[in-house]
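Treating backbone geometry as a discrete language has practical consequences that deserve illustration. Part of our work consisted of pairing the sequence of a single chain with a tokenised description of its backbone. What the numbers capture is local backbone geometry rather than side-chain detail. For completeness, the protein is quoted in full, as a sequence line and a line of structure tokens:
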Amino acid sequence: MLSIIIPTLNEEDYLSLLLNSIKAQDFSDYEIIVADAGSTDKTLAIAQKYGCAVVPGGLPGPARNHGAKIAKGDLLFFLDADTTLPESFLTKALQEFSERKLGIASFFLRFKEPKHITISLDVFYNKMAVVLEQTLPHSAVGILVKKSLFEKVKGYDELLKLSEDHDLSRRAQKQGAFGIIRSTEIMVSDRRFVKDGWLKTCAKYFLCELHTIFIGPVKSDIFNYKFNHYKEP
């Protein structure tokens, strides 16, 4: 079984889109766990409507750990709430994961909004992630991992303020094979870039990467990273 774990906080505008894309898959051996950080909108009602299990959440790292604790599957799929999955995503991803004998994997990303040219995302994230696949794993938005490996590395580091996905993959790669799945991709929202500004957001991620490489994982609020602040004025 596959356990799909989704951290949420006031995601009524996006969660149903993601859950619809999961329900439309040609793979059905899964459960969906929503780790909610205290939503005050319709997020929980949507999760219940789609038959999701709900656990207390928090920041993304702790929320994913909370979801993993009740997961029944031998594979965990951590996924952001503002994403959608294309047709046959799960079948293709799981087949490639198995054929390549991976222990943990991440994915190519594509913007959902058609107005955006995705060349920059391809060059600065997707292609870079492939080039650095075996030396410096990059993972964002979606991570597929064997539950046994996830438990072996003690899951997400809950002290991290940013880049917790990269940290998980880099620690897990020391215990099992890491790979970027090539056969499919995750559709992502540009809302953080629009809300915070494209240049500011890209600069923040770049500086975070340098901090992680040369200083260590980000455990302070130096980058002032916020979790779901999109409805703030």
Q: What stands out?
A: The mean pLDDT is 89. The chain is about 40% helix and 20% strand. Residues 2-214 form a domain with the Spore Coat Polysaccharide Biosynthesis Protein SpsA; Chain A fold (CATH 3.90.550.10). Residues 198-214 form the longest helix (17 residues).
